[in-house]
Amino acid sequence: MTATPDQPASPAGTGKRVLLASPRGYCAGVDRAVIAVEKALEQYGAPIYVRHEIVHNKYVVKTLEKKGAIFVEETAEVPEGSIVMFSAHGVAPVVHDEAAARNLATIDATCPLVTKVHREAVRYAKEDFDILLIGHEGHEEVVGTSGEAPEHITIVDGPADVADVKVRDESKVVWLSQTTLSVDETMETVDKLKEKFPGLVSPPSDDICYATQNRQIAVKQMGAAADLVIVVGSKNSSNSVRLVEVALGAGARAAHLVDSADEIEESWLGGVTTVGLTSGASVPDVLVEGVLEWLSTRGFEDVEIVKAAEESITFSLPKELRRDLRAELGTS
Fold it and tell me: At what angle do helices 183-196 and 238-249 cross, to 10 degrees?
């Protein structure tokens, strides 16, 4: 059953219902990255070192740690001659250099959509453009993209940053963006940049990934009809945090981000008859199922699907997994 924002509440005994967003959870890039870690462990054995969290989700990271993955913050923490995987968020070229200096075999699990933004940054830097990268300062993806052309890139962290932006030549300015941002806020930033730099060039195609956009559209569709929206995702997940903001902007009375059902507070359900439920792009559906079970025991048994789009995109595994990295390293 597909719900719409003006659909009446369920006729079930309690009148309570859940509007379940579709699509939700894993995107193609996250699915690829998680499978890559599992395949590497299967193929080469533990440990497999991963630079930064492979994706921003506590449950996923802990599950992979139990299987033998070791997550590190810096390349220097990986023992020389080991295998290291780069996360879905991407890394700067200097990180590849660091890995080579330590004789590390690398598996690059960067999401292909992030790689696209990296290539755009390199291309525009070669053409001597000033690149205005819309994104959150310090986020791994922004750090990685900035590292492709640091002398050409200025980070613009939202509309409030626009006033301070300076460029060398207003006729050679282009904007790019982090892939996991709020579509609405990003376009607000772009509009302000265009007011300041009328000749601002846009990227050849949208940088915000399809999955981020689809999940935000689904939340917009349910937001006005929901008394409460629960977003399953970790606090360091940019796209999950954005879903909370989108829900509130769409008219939800309240919206909360939780890692799992254990973090839901009973008090949130006071006066609530309709709960909207979705999850960020790095969240396995088992966590959403746990929230559905938790809600069901509290009278929210009727579940209606709010469908925003069909997703059929898949990405092939990193090419490095097709080679024998241990043989390359000369180890058994």
Answer: 90
Q: Would you tell me how many other CB atoms lie within 10 Å of the CB of residue 189?
A: 24
Mean pLDDT calculated for residue range 163-170: 97
Residues 201, 175 contacting (CB under 8 angstroms):
yes
DSSP reduced 3-state for 319: helix
Amino acid at 41: L
- Length of the chain in terms of residues written: 332
Instruction: Provide the token pair at 92.
Output: 């700067």
**Rounded distance between C-alpha atoms, residue 189 and residue 181, angstroms:** 11
Residues annotated as catalytic are: 141
pTM for the whole thing? Answer: 0.89
- pLDDT (tens digit per residue) in 295-309: 999 999 999 999 999
User: DSSP string of 230-285?
Assistant: EEES-TT-HHHHHHHHHHHHTT-SEEEEESSGGG--GGGGTT-SEEEEEE-TT--H
**Alpha carbon separation from 216 to 18, 31, 143, 205, 251 (Å, rounded):** 17, 19, 24, 19, 13
Burial of 287 (0-12, 13-18, 19+ CB in 10 A): buried
